[in-house]
Amino acid sequence: MPLHSCLNLILIFHLLMLIPSSSSPSPEELSQIPSIFLQHAQHPEVFDWMVDLRRKIHENPELGFQEFETSKLIRAELDRLGISYKYPVAITGVVGFIGTGNPPFVAIRADMDALALQEGVEWEHKSKVPGKMHACGHDAHVAMLLGAAKILQQHRHLIQGTVVLVFQPAEEGGGGAKKMLEAGVLDNVDAIFGLHVSSRHPFGMVISKPGPILAASGFFEAVIGGKGGHAALPQHTIDPILAASNIIVSLQHLVSREADPLDSQVVTIAKFQGGGAFNVIPDSVTIGGTFRAFSKESFIQLKQRIIEVITKQANVQRCNATVEFNEDQKPFFPVTLNDQNLYKHFRTVAGDMLGTNNILDMQPLMGTEDFGFYGEVIPGLFYFVGMKNESVGKFEQGHSPYYIVNEDVLPYGAALHASIATRYLLEYSTKSASTKGHSYDEL
Ligand SMILES: [Zn+2]
Ligand SMILES: [Zn+2]
Protein backbone atom coordinates (compact mmCIF):
# COMPACT_ATOMS: atom_id res chain seq x y z
CA MET A 1 0.00 0.00 0.00
CA PRO A 2 1.48 3.39 -0.97
CA LEU A 3 2.37 5.76 1.83
CA HIS A 4 -0.39 8.28 1.09
CA SER A 5 -3.04 5.52 1.26
CA CYS A 6 -1.73 4.42 4.65
CA LEU A 7 -1.71 7.99 5.82
CA ASN A 8 -5.25 8.51 4.64
CA LEU A 9 -6.53 5.41 6.35
CA ILE A 10 -4.81 6.48 9.53
CA LEU A 11 -6.43 9.90 9.27
CA ILE A 12 -9.88 8.47 8.67
CA PHE A 13 -9.41 6.07 11.56
CA HIS A 14 -8.20 8.96 13.67
CA LEU A 15 -11.33 10.94 12.82
CA LEU A 16 -13.56 7.98 13.63
CA MET A 17 -11.86 7.70 17.00
CA LEU A 18 -11.86 11.44 17.52
CA ILE A 19 -15.57 11.93 17.49
CA PRO A 20 -17.66 9.14 18.94
CA SER A 21 -21.22 9.56 17.65
CA SER A 22 -22.67 9.96 21.13
CA SER A 23 -20.52 12.84 22.38
CA SER A 24 -20.20 16.44 21.27
CA PRO A 25 -16.90 17.13 19.55
CA SER A 26 -14.44 19.53 21.12
CA PRO A 27 -13.39 22.69 19.22
CA GLU A 28 -10.03 21.03 18.40
CA GLU A 29 -11.79 17.98 16.99
CA LEU A 30 -14.09 20.17 14.89
CA SER A 31 -11.17 22.17 13.52
CA GLN A 32 -9.53 18.99 12.18
CA ILE A 33 -12.52 17.89 10.09
CA PRO A 34 -11.87 20.18 7.05
CA SER A 35 -8.24 19.13 6.52
CA ILE A 36 -9.05 15.44 7.05
CA PHE A 37 -11.88 15.71 4.49
CA LEU A 38 -9.54 17.46 2.04
CA GLN A 39 -6.96 14.69 2.36
CA HIS A 40 -9.73 12.17 1.85
CA ALA A 41 -10.92 14.00 -1.30
CA GLN A 42 -7.35 14.15 -2.64
CA HIS A 43 -6.88 10.41 -2.22
CA PRO A 44 -6.50 8.92 -5.73
CA GLU A 45 -9.55 6.70 -5.23
CA VAL A 46 -11.79 9.74 -4.74
CA PHE A 47 -9.87 12.22 -6.90
CA ASP A 48 -9.64 10.00 -10.02
CA TRP A 49 -13.31 9.11 -9.67
CA MET A 50 -14.31 12.81 -9.57
CA VAL A 51 -12.06 13.62 -12.55
CA ASP A 52 -13.62 10.78 -14.51
CA LEU A 53 -17.17 11.97 -13.69
CA ARG A 54 -16.34 15.55 -14.62
CA ARG A 55 -14.87 14.46 -17.97
CA LYS A 56 -17.90 12.27 -18.76
CA ILE A 57 -20.22 15.21 -18.08
CA HIS A 58 -17.96 17.54 -20.07
CA GLU A 59 -18.12 15.25 -23.11
CA ASN A 60 -21.92 15.25 -23.05
CA PRO A 61 -23.08 18.78 -22.22
CA GLU A 62 -26.83 19.36 -21.87
CA LEU A 63 -28.73 22.65 -21.79
CA GLY A 64 -31.10 23.80 -19.06
CA PHE A 65 -33.96 21.41 -18.21
CA GLN A 66 -32.52 18.88 -20.68
CA GLU A 67 -29.88 17.44 -18.32
CA PHE A 68 -31.30 13.90 -18.60
CA GLU A 69 -28.01 12.02 -19.04
CA THR A 70 -26.25 14.14 -16.41
CA SER A 71 -29.10 13.44 -14.01
CA LYS A 72 -28.93 9.72 -14.81
CA LEU A 73 -25.20 9.67 -14.09
CA ILE A 74 -25.79 11.42 -10.74
CA ARG A 75 -28.49 8.93 -9.75
CA ALA A 76 -26.31 5.97 -10.72
CA GLU A 77 -23.52 7.27 -8.47
CA LEU A 78 -25.90 7.97 -5.59
CA ASP A 79 -27.27 4.42 -5.96
CA ARG A 80 -23.72 3.06 -5.82
CA LEU A 81 -23.03 5.10 -2.70
CA GLY A 82 -26.26 3.90 -1.06
CA ILE A 83 -27.66 7.44 -0.80
CA SER A 84 -31.44 7.91 -1.07
CA TYR A 85 -32.80 10.66 -3.32
CA LYS A 86 -35.87 12.20 -4.86
CA TYR A 87 -36.26 12.35 -8.66
CA PRO A 88 -37.48 14.00 -10.81
CA VAL A 89 -37.50 17.40 -9.17
CA ALA A 90 -37.97 20.37 -11.55
CA ILE A 91 -37.75 17.99 -14.58
CA THR A 92 -34.13 16.78 -14.30
CA GLY A 93 -33.16 17.78 -10.74
CA VAL A 94 -32.07 15.25 -8.10
CA VAL A 95 -32.22 15.78 -4.33
CA GLY A 96 -30.19 13.39 -2.15
CA PHE A 97 -30.24 12.89 1.62
CA ILE A 98 -27.40 11.80 3.91
CA GLY A 99 -27.69 11.42 7.66
CA THR A 100 -30.46 10.72 10.12
CA GLY A 101 -33.36 11.87 7.92
CA ASN A 102 -34.33 14.17 10.78
CA PRO A 103 -33.71 17.87 11.48
CA PRO A 104 -31.68 19.93 11.39
CA PHE A 105 -31.36 19.98 7.59
CA VAL A 106 -28.60 21.77 5.71
CA ALA A 107 -28.38 21.92 1.89
CA ILE A 108 -25.39 21.99 -0.48
CA ARG A 109 -26.06 22.75 -4.13
CA ALA A 110 -24.60 22.15 -7.61
CA ASP A 111 -25.91 23.30 -11.00
CA MET A 112 -25.87 20.85 -13.92
CA ASP A 113 -26.45 22.75 -17.18
CA ALA A 114 -24.11 23.63 -20.04
CA LEU A 115 -24.12 26.51 -22.55
CA ALA A 116 -25.08 26.80 -26.22
CA LEU A 117 -21.47 27.31 -27.30
CA GLN A 118 -19.06 25.46 -29.58
CA GLU A 119 -16.02 24.26 -27.62
CA GLY A 120 -12.76 25.72 -28.94
CA VAL A 121 -10.40 23.71 -26.72
CA GLU A 122 -8.78 20.71 -28.45
CA TRP A 123 -8.33 17.96 -25.87
CA GLU A 124 -9.14 14.32 -25.31
CA HIS A 125 -12.42 14.97 -23.52
CA LYS A 126 -13.73 17.78 -25.72
CA SER A 127 -17.53 18.18 -25.95
CA LYS A 128 -18.99 15.57 -28.29
CA VAL A 129 -22.12 17.65 -28.90
CA PRO A 130 -21.74 20.34 -31.58
CA GLY A 131 -22.78 23.78 -30.34
CA LYS A 132 -22.91 22.81 -26.65
CA MET A 133 -20.21 23.12 -24.02
CA HIS A 134 -19.65 23.18 -20.30
CA ALA A 135 -17.99 26.61 -20.31
CA CYS A 136 -19.00 27.72 -16.82
CA GLY A 137 -17.63 24.80 -14.76
CA HIS A 138 -20.98 23.21 -13.90
CA ASP A 139 -19.49 19.84 -14.89
CA ALA A 140 -16.94 20.38 -12.10
CA HIS A 141 -19.70 21.48 -9.71
CA VAL A 142 -21.58 18.19 -10.20
CA ALA A 143 -18.38 16.15 -9.69
CA MET A 144 -17.60 18.13 -6.53
CA LEU A 145 -21.05 17.61 -5.03
CA LEU A 146 -20.82 13.89 -5.78
CA GLY A 147 -17.36 13.94 -4.17
CA ALA A 148 -18.89 15.60 -1.10
CA ALA A 149 -21.64 12.95 -1.09
CA LYS A 150 -19.01 10.20 -1.04
CA ILE A 151 -17.07 11.80 1.82
CA LEU A 152 -20.24 12.51 3.80
CA GLN A 153 -21.58 9.01 3.33
CA GLN A 154 -18.29 7.53 4.55
CA HIS A 155 -18.41 9.81 7.61
CA ARG A 156 -22.14 9.64 8.20
CA HIS A 157 -21.61 8.86 11.90
CA LEU A 158 -20.52 12.53 12.16
CA ILE A 159 -23.73 13.91 10.64
CA GLN A 160 -26.02 15.10 13.38
CA GLY A 161 -29.08 15.76 11.24
CA THR A 162 -29.41 15.57 7.47
CA VAL A 163 -27.39 16.94 4.58
CA VAL A 164 -29.59 17.67 1.53
CA LEU A 165 -27.75 17.36 -1.80
CA VAL A 166 -29.33 19.70 -4.35
CA PHE A 167 -28.49 18.94 -8.00
CA GLN A 168 -30.42 21.61 -9.87
CA PRO A 169 -31.10 22.14 -13.57
CA ALA A 170 -31.00 25.30 -15.68
CA GLU A 171 -28.87 27.83 -13.82
CA GLU A 172 -27.91 29.65 -17.03
CA GLY A 173 -30.96 31.89 -17.38
CA GLY A 174 -33.66 29.25 -16.98
CA GLY A 175 -34.23 29.81 -13.27
CA GLY A 176 -33.86 26.15 -12.27
CA ALA A 177 -33.44 27.22 -8.63
CA LYS A 178 -36.89 28.83 -8.69
CA LYS A 179 -38.46 25.59 -9.93
CA MET A 180 -36.57 23.57 -7.29
CA LEU A 181 -37.96 25.88 -4.61
CA GLU A 182 -41.48 25.52 -6.02
CA ALA A 183 -41.01 21.75 -5.71
CA GLY A 184 -40.34 22.27 -1.99
CA VAL A 185 -36.69 21.19 -1.83
CA LEU A 186 -35.86 23.71 0.89
CA ASP A 187 -38.91 23.04 3.07
CA ASN A 188 -37.56 22.59 6.64
CA VAL A 189 -33.98 23.30 5.52
CA ASP A 190 -32.14 25.77 7.78
CA ALA A 191 -29.34 26.94 5.48
CA ILE A 192 -27.94 26.41 1.98
CA PHE A 193 -24.36 26.66 0.70
CA GLY A 194 -23.24 26.87 -2.93
CA LEU A 195 -19.96 27.39 -4.74
CA HIS A 196 -18.64 28.35 -8.15
CA VAL A 197 -15.19 27.67 -9.55
CA SER A 198 -13.32 30.86 -10.46
CA SER A 199 -10.83 31.29 -13.31
CA ARG A 200 -9.97 34.76 -12.04
CA HIS A 201 -8.65 33.71 -8.63
CA PRO A 202 -5.55 31.68 -7.76
CA PHE A 203 -5.78 27.97 -7.06
CA GLY A 204 -5.89 27.20 -3.33
CA MET A 205 -7.92 30.28 -2.43
CA VAL A 206 -11.59 30.82 -1.67
CA ILE A 207 -13.42 34.07 -2.19
CA SER A 208 -16.62 35.48 -0.69
CA LYS A 209 -18.06 38.28 1.41
CA PRO A 210 -21.10 38.88 3.61
CA GLY A 211 -24.06 40.82 2.18
CA PRO A 212 -24.89 41.27 -1.53
CA ILE A 213 -22.31 39.71 -3.86
CA LEU A 214 -24.10 39.32 -7.20
CA ALA A 215 -26.72 41.53 -8.82
CA ALA A 216 -30.40 41.06 -9.55
CA SER A 217 -30.96 40.76 -13.29
CA GLY A 218 -33.67 40.89 -15.90
CA PHE A 219 -33.94 40.89 -19.68
CA PHE A 220 -36.16 42.98 -21.91
CA GLU A 221 -37.11 43.22 -25.54
CA ALA A 222 -38.90 46.12 -27.25
CA VAL A 223 -40.44 46.46 -30.69
CA ILE A 224 -40.48 50.03 -32.01
CA GLY A 225 -42.99 50.47 -34.78
CA GLY A 226 -42.91 53.26 -37.39
CA LYS A 227 -43.76 53.43 -41.09
CA GLY A 228 -41.37 52.06 -43.66
CA GLY A 229 -40.58 53.53 -47.06
CA HIS A 230 -37.95 54.83 -49.46
CA ALA A 231 -34.73 55.85 -47.73
CA ALA A 232 -34.46 58.90 -50.01
CA LEU A 233 -37.95 60.15 -49.10
CA PRO A 234 -37.94 60.23 -45.26
CA GLN A 235 -40.82 62.73 -45.18
CA HIS A 236 -43.18 59.88 -46.23
CA THR A 237 -41.98 57.54 -43.47
CA ILE A 238 -41.78 57.34 -39.70
CA ASP A 239 -38.24 56.14 -39.10
CA PRO A 240 -38.03 53.52 -36.29
CA ILE A 241 -34.23 53.27 -36.63
CA LEU A 242 -33.75 56.87 -35.54
CA ALA A 243 -36.38 56.43 -32.80
CA ALA A 244 -34.63 53.29 -31.52
CA SER A 245 -31.28 55.11 -31.56
CA ASN A 246 -32.72 57.93 -29.41
CA ILE A 247 -34.31 55.36 -27.08
CA ILE A 248 -30.94 53.68 -26.56
CA VAL A 249 -29.28 57.00 -25.74
CA SER A 250 -32.13 57.92 -23.34
CA LEU A 251 -31.87 54.54 -21.60
CA GLN A 252 -28.24 55.33 -20.76
CA HIS A 253 -29.47 58.27 -18.65
CA LEU A 254 -31.21 55.91 -16.22
CA VAL A 255 -27.88 54.87 -14.73
CA SER A 256 -25.81 57.99 -15.41
CA ARG A 257 -28.41 60.62 -14.31
CA GLU A 258 -31.17 58.98 -12.27
CA ALA A 259 -29.42 56.33 -10.16
CA ASP A 260 -27.40 57.09 -7.04
CA PRO A 261 -23.77 56.85 -8.22
CA LEU A 262 -23.04 54.70 -5.14
CA ASP A 263 -25.84 52.25 -5.97
CA SER A 264 -24.44 50.11 -8.80
CA GLN A 265 -26.76 49.50 -11.75
CA VAL A 266 -26.41 48.47 -15.40
CA VAL A 267 -28.58 48.90 -18.48
CA THR A 268 -27.12 47.33 -21.62
CA ILE A 269 -28.70 47.10 -25.05
CA ALA A 270 -27.16 44.01 -26.59
CA LYS A 271 -29.56 43.46 -29.48
CA PHE A 272 -30.53 45.82 -32.33
CA GLN A 273 -32.34 44.38 -35.31
CA GLY A 274 -33.93 46.50 -38.03
CA GLY A 275 -33.88 46.80 -41.78
CA GLY A 276 -32.10 44.74 -44.37
CA ALA A 277 -31.38 47.11 -47.23
CA PHE A 278 -29.35 50.28 -47.75
CA ASN A 279 -32.23 52.18 -49.31
CA VAL A 280 -35.28 51.08 -47.29
CA ILE A 281 -36.49 52.51 -44.00
CA PRO A 282 -38.00 49.49 -42.19
CA ASP A 283 -41.43 49.31 -40.57
CA SER A 284 -40.06 48.32 -37.19
CA VAL A 285 -36.94 47.76 -35.10
CA THR A 286 -36.40 45.26 -32.27
CA ILE A 287 -34.01 46.10 -29.46
CA GLY A 288 -33.21 44.04 -26.39
CA GLY A 289 -30.88 43.90 -23.44
CA THR A 290 -30.37 43.34 -19.76
CA PHE A 291 -30.65 45.40 -16.59
CA ARG A 292 -28.96 44.81 -13.25
CA ALA A 293 -29.19 46.28 -9.75
CA PHE A 294 -28.02 45.50 -6.23
CA SER A 295 -31.29 46.04 -4.42
CA LYS A 296 -34.88 45.02 -5.01
CA GLU A 297 -36.03 48.66 -4.88
CA SER A 298 -33.51 49.81 -7.51
CA PHE A 299 -34.37 46.82 -9.67
CA ILE A 300 -38.12 47.57 -9.62
CA GLN A 301 -37.46 51.28 -10.26
CA LEU A 302 -35.19 50.45 -13.21
CA LYS A 303 -37.77 48.12 -14.72
CA GLN A 304 -40.49 50.79 -14.48
CA ARG A 305 -38.28 53.47 -16.02
CA ILE A 306 -37.20 51.18 -18.90
CA ILE A 307 -40.87 50.83 -19.88
CA GLU A 308 -41.49 54.57 -19.61
CA VAL A 309 -38.38 55.66 -21.49
CA ILE A 310 -38.94 53.22 -24.36
CA THR A 311 -42.65 53.94 -24.86
CA LYS A 312 -42.49 57.71 -24.30
CA GLN A 313 -39.31 58.29 -26.29
CA ALA A 314 -40.87 56.30 -29.14
CA ASN A 315 -43.88 58.65 -29.01
CA VAL A 316 -41.60 61.69 -29.28
CA GLN A 317 -40.48 60.30 -32.64
CA ARG A 318 -44.11 59.48 -33.71
CA CYS A 319 -43.46 55.75 -33.24
CA ASN A 320 -45.16 53.31 -30.92
CA ALA A 321 -43.41 50.71 -28.77
CA THR A 322 -44.12 47.58 -26.76
CA VAL A 323 -41.81 46.24 -24.06
CA GLU A 324 -41.68 42.59 -22.96
CA PHE A 325 -39.68 41.06 -20.12
CA ASN A 326 -40.41 37.39 -21.07
CA GLU A 327 -40.26 36.33 -17.45
CA ASP A 328 -41.61 32.85 -18.15
CA GLN A 329 -38.54 32.02 -20.28
CA LYS A 330 -36.02 34.32 -18.61
CA PRO A 331 -37.12 34.86 -15.02
CA PHE A 332 -35.80 37.84 -13.08
CA PHE A 333 -32.96 36.72 -10.81
CA PRO A 334 -32.84 38.20 -7.32
CA VAL A 335 -29.71 39.62 -5.70
CA THR A 336 -27.42 36.90 -4.30
CA LEU A 337 -27.20 37.88 -0.66
CA ASN A 338 -24.77 36.19 1.74
CA ASP A 339 -26.04 35.71 5.29
CA GLN A 340 -23.71 37.26 7.89
CA ASN A 341 -23.70 34.25 10.25
CA LEU A 342 -23.22 31.72 7.48
CA TYR A 343 -20.33 33.81 6.20
CA LYS A 344 -18.69 33.57 9.65
CA HIS A 345 -19.22 29.81 9.58
CA PHE A 346 -17.73 29.57 6.07
CA ARG A 347 -14.69 31.64 7.13
CA THR A 348 -14.05 29.44 10.14
CA VAL A 349 -14.31 26.16 8.23
CA ALA A 350 -12.42 27.35 5.13
CA GLY A 351 -9.79 28.91 7.42
CA ASP A 352 -9.31 25.57 9.19
CA MET A 353 -8.79 23.90 5.81
CA LEU A 354 -6.73 26.47 3.91
CA GLY A 355 -5.52 29.04 6.43
CA THR A 356 -7.25 32.42 6.80
CA ASN A 357 -4.67 34.07 4.51
CA ASN A 358 -6.16 32.02 1.66
CA ILE A 359 -9.65 33.51 2.11
CA LEU A 360 -10.03 36.57 -0.08
CA ASP A 361 -12.66 39.30 0.22
CA MET A 362 -14.81 39.35 -2.85
CA GLN A 363 -15.53 42.45 -4.89
CA PRO A 364 -19.26 42.32 -5.68
CA LEU A 365 -20.02 41.67 -9.35
CA MET A 366 -22.86 42.79 -11.62
CA GLY A 367 -23.01 39.16 -12.76
CA THR A 368 -25.88 37.04 -11.56
CA GLU A 369 -26.61 33.59 -10.11
CA ASP A 370 -29.91 31.86 -9.63
CA PHE A 371 -28.59 30.79 -6.20
CA GLY A 372 -30.13 34.15 -5.21
CA PHE A 373 -33.57 32.48 -5.31
CA TYR A 374 -32.59 30.20 -2.42
CA GLY A 375 -31.19 33.09 -0.41
CA GLU A 376 -34.55 34.86 -0.65
CA VAL A 377 -36.21 31.99 1.22
CA ILE A 378 -33.63 30.75 3.74
CA PRO A 379 -30.17 31.98 4.83
CA GLY A 380 -27.68 31.22 2.04
CA LEU A 381 -23.97 31.51 1.42
CA PHE A 382 -22.29 31.50 -1.98
CA TYR A 383 -18.54 31.44 -2.47
CA PHE A 384 -15.95 31.04 -5.21
CA VAL A 385 -13.11 28.53 -5.31
CA GLY A 386 -10.00 29.72 -7.16
CA MET A 387 -8.53 27.44 -9.83
CA LYS A 388 -6.19 29.70 -11.79
CA ASN A 389 -2.76 28.16 -12.23
CA GLU A 390 -0.84 29.30 -15.30
CA SER A 391 1.29 26.14 -15.28
CA VAL A 392 -1.90 24.13 -15.99
CA GLY A 393 -3.07 26.35 -18.87
CA LYS A 394 -4.56 29.69 -19.82
CA PHE A 395 -7.67 30.44 -17.79
CA GLU A 396 -10.32 32.24 -19.80
CA GLN A 397 -13.42 33.79 -18.23
CA GLY A 398 -16.58 31.69 -17.94
CA HIS A 399 -18.67 31.40 -21.14
CA SER A 400 -15.57 31.54 -23.34
CA PRO A 401 -15.19 28.74 -25.94
CA TYR A 402 -11.65 28.37 -24.58
CA TYR A 403 -12.76 27.91 -20.95
CA ILE A 404 -10.84 25.23 -19.05
CA VAL A 405 -11.15 23.72 -15.57
CA ASN A 406 -8.17 23.00 -13.35
CA GLU A 407 -9.21 19.55 -12.15
CA ASP A 408 -6.98 19.89 -9.06
CA VAL A 409 -9.77 22.09 -7.69
CA LEU A 410 -12.24 19.17 -7.47
CA PRO A 411 -11.09 17.88 -4.02
CA TYR A 412 -11.22 21.42 -2.63
CA GLY A 413 -14.84 21.91 -3.68
CA ALA A 414 -15.85 18.44 -2.46
CA ALA A 415 -14.13 18.85 0.92
CA LEU A 416 -15.45 22.40 1.42
CA HIS A 417 -19.02 21.30 0.70
CA ALA A 418 -18.70 18.29 3.01
CA SER A 419 -16.98 20.02 5.91
CA ILE A 420 -19.12 23.17 5.81
CA ALA A 421 -22.29 21.02 5.98
CA THR A 422 -20.94 18.60 8.62
CA ARG A 423 -19.66 21.38 10.86
CA TYR A 424 -22.87 23.37 10.42
CA LEU A 425 -24.89 20.42 11.71
CA LEU A 426 -22.46 19.62 14.53
CA GLU A 427 -22.30 23.20 15.70
CA TYR A 428 -26.00 23.87 15.08
CA SER A 429 -27.00 20.68 16.94
CA THR A 430 -24.82 21.42 19.97
CA LYS A 431 -26.21 24.96 20.11
CA SER A 432 -29.86 23.90 19.87
CA ALA A 433 -29.98 20.32 21.07
CA SER A 434 -33.67 20.67 21.86
CA THR A 435 -34.64 21.43 18.24
CA LYS A 436 -37.44 19.12 17.25
CA GLY A 437 -38.96 19.65 13.85
CA HIS A 438 -40.64 17.38 11.39
CA SER A 439 -38.69 15.25 8.96
CA TYR A 440 -39.17 15.09 5.21
CA ASP A 441 -42.47 13.36 4.53
CA GLU A 442 -40.93 11.07 1.95
CA LEU A 443 -37.97 9.99 4.05
ZN1 LIG B 1 -22.47 30.72 -16.43
ZN1 LIG C 1 -21.96 29.17 -13.67
From TrEMBL:
<dbReference type="InterPro" id="IPR002933">
    <property type="entry name" value="Peptidase_M20"/>
</dbReference>
<dbReference type="InterPro" id="IPR036264">
    <property type="entry name" value="Bact_exopeptidase_dim_dom"/>
</dbReference>
<protein>
    <recommendedName>
        <fullName>Peptidase M20 dimerisation domain-containing protein</fullName>
    </recommendedName>
</protein>
<dbReference type="InterPro" id="IPR011650">
    <property type="entry name" value="Peptidase_M20_dimer"/>
</dbReference>
<keyword id="KW-0732">Signal</keyword>
<feature type="domain" description="Peptidase M20 dimerisation">
    <location>
        <begin position="221"/>
        <end position="314"/>
    </location>
</feature>
<dbReference type="InterPro" id="IPR044757">
    <property type="entry name" value="ILR1-like_Hyd"/>
</dbReference>
<comment type="similarity">
    <text>Belongs to the peptidase M20 family.</text>
</comment>
<dbReference type="Pfam" id="PF01546">
    <property type="entry name" value="Peptidase_M20"/>
</dbReference>
<keyword id="KW-0378">Hydrolase</keyword>
<dbReference type="InterPro" id="IPR017439">
    <property type="entry name" value="Amidohydrolase"/>
</dbReference>
<dbReference type="Pfam" id="PF07687">
    <property type="entry name" value="M20_dimer"/>
</dbReference>
<feature type="signal peptide">
    <location>
        <begin position="1"/>
        <end position="24"/>
    </location>
</feature>
